[in-house]
Amino acid sequence: MISKILENLQIATLNDMQKACIDAAKRGDVVLLSPTGSGKTLAFLLPLLARLKKEDKGVQTLILVPSRELALQIEQVWRQMSTGFKVNCCYGGHATRVEKNNLKHPPALLVGTPGRIAYHIRHEHIQVSTISTLVLDEFDKSLELGFQDEMEFIIRNLPNVERRMLTSATSLDEIPAFVKLSKDRSTVDFLEATAHLPSIELKVVNTTAEDKHETLFSLICLIGNQPTLVFCNHREAVNRISDMLHKSGIDHGVFHGGMEQEERERALLKFRNRTYHLLITTDLAARGLDIPEIACVVHYQLPNEESFIHRNGRTARMHAEGTAYLIVHNNEIPGYITQKVTPVELSDEDIIPLPSPWCTVYIAAGKKDKVNKIDIVGLLLKKGGLHQDELGRIEVYDYAAFAAVKRDKVQQMLKLTANEKIKNKKVKIAVSD
Fold first, then answer.
1. CA gyration radius for the chain?
2. Minimum mean pLDDT among 52-66, 149-163, 235-249, 325-339: which range?
3. pLDDT given for residue 194 in this prediction
4. What is the pTM of this model?
5. Would you say the C-alpha torsion 52, 57, 60, 64 has a positive or negative sign?
6. How many domains does the structure of the chain reveal?
7. Which of 11, 42, 272, 280 has the greatest number of C-beta atoms within 10 Å?
């Protein structure tokens, strides 16, 4: 079973942390401590799969997460595993009506944010008596974001939980009593395991407060079209940088907590499918997001030590190598950085990176319309005249889908598909905003 799942996920083998977690879960409750990007999602999904029963009705496993993005990521991994068990997500930022309807036919696996799950429990949309397994993913982040009251309410209303798993990317000095972990729980601690630490080269760019924007601009030109995250401590700084980049003609996305949920999701989608090579963000993007293959991280503003580690954890995930750039004043390197730091000399002539060869196409049909990736591939290749290498990443949501298409082929594809149908229904297809 596991070998087939790994094949579906295109993973050759489990890592040591995942194997240790699976073994520990056979004995009882588990606390899993492991760095960002080390594969914690699969480490807890495989053990809980072993506990699901085909004959049981209702929600069997509940996974609580701190963000919508992490919920969607877990849902995506579960669907790729092709287990045969239904999964649903519940999170803020969209209508509760759709979730309520989904819960009338409850999934075996329910993933959600604490606020939205608490809402459904209060309104009795979830039959809590059937839930026997509870996972608290990124528990430290949930506490940091102030979800303790909601989590405590949820856990106190789950009468039949037999197995608990808690994951964290940081060490936990104390686990609140309301979590109800068994005294003989196992702790799987890989926070100090060097085998899982990415190989990150640290580089420093010295500047002044007055020249900081210009320095960042030159650094972005130097990095070029490598997938890059620029981290700021505040959303106001993100917006100021975005304004500067727009004026300079550099394509990029923006991601922070002050944006509407749909805007945030669209920015991540375009970054994943390479419509954008550059994403300007706060620490909201430092953990728990599905952002693969990041080449570079730029610390426009330096954070505390813990956030610094999580930011850097966004790179060097797939190929174990990456670069983190620090923009500093007067060569002042924080004391928590003990690794060798290499100075960077910026060019006197900035060459603006070329726009991405990809753009994102919106398709007004999704899972609720019984549309899947295969339907979209068929439409865009057979009817849209695209070759396989001209079609990139496809993501299908409940009522819409998005596909990366080579920029120089988009207009021709739109003309060819203007009157075409998916599942016998004519749908709108357009370049995404």
1. 23
2. 325-339
3. 43
4. 0.67
5. positive
6. 3
7. 280
